[in-house]
Amino acid sequence: MSSKATMLCAVTALAVAVALPVRAEVTEVRIAQQFGITYLPLMYMEHQKLLEKHAKQEGLGDVKVIWTKFAGGNVMNDALLSGSLDFASGGVSPLITLWAKTRGNLDVRGVCAMNTMPLYLNTRDPNVKSIKDFTDKDKIALPAVKVSFQAVNLQMAAAAAFGDKNYNKLDKLTVTLSHPDGMAALLSPASEVTAHFTAPPFQYQELEHPGVHTVLNSYKIVGGPHTFTVVWATGKFRKDNPKIYKAFLAAFEEAIGEINRDKPAAAKNYITWANYKGPADLPLKVLDDPLVTFTTTPHKTTTYADFMYRIGSIKVKPKSWKDMFFPEVHNLHGS
After folding, report:
1. Which domains does the chain have, with CATH numbers?
2. Reported pTM
3. Average pLDDT over all residues of the chain
């Protein structure tokens, strides 16, 4: 081939390459959250349009963010698998479940942690001092039977109290209710629900009522502070939308920074954004609780994964917490 022909081929190839459209990132991002003050970072992102701001800084222009609410992580996982959701949020166990199921295909992993918070199992039954005192007359409300983070904590407590083979001994007493509905049921004398395994601020609100006391604190189950809620996504979404993913993390970190910088303002924002109707001073008490921390660092996630593997609810065990989270947070001192 002559040098002139070679040059013509090169120019033609360059022209074709330039003409080919660069695959654009999504212009709509679908994010889901649940109920409670634990989701305050996502509330900041929603109401202050932080993802939209950081997406513009990444050169993506105007990105539309669609927010939805779910009662439990299991329903959120279904939405993520069906492709109708981009970022899911919830307790650690739904993430672990989906991570184990999607390795090698959708590759669902954690984006970051959201906080460390204790979960309380409260009851209005004065005869119930420990989980060994529950009888068939009791009903325990939690976000999702058998699969929610509260349900897994209850199973861990049952395994410790009754032996590993009886980890599911109390599952038959559990019923699925959202946090607001579970609290309403617990506080209604006419309800069959006598106990509620919930989350802030609902667990604190319940304890404001005479006769309600705590049976179980999740920190005692695993021997210290643990991550409660996390954000997760598919590996495909992260790969196809690197700038959106980067903007999400930046927006999330900004939201956490705002909460930790001014907790009184964060408490007021929660009251407004969540349409909170409980005691006015309670949200700030929650945020000031030394047991509550908003952080992107995962804690004790492998403790839960090891238990879930031991009882057979997942078929593979992570070697490290980093197996379950995308590399962007691997620099953190997680567990």
Report:
1. 28-117+226-329 (3.40.190.10), 120-222 (3.40.190)
2. 0.89
3. 92
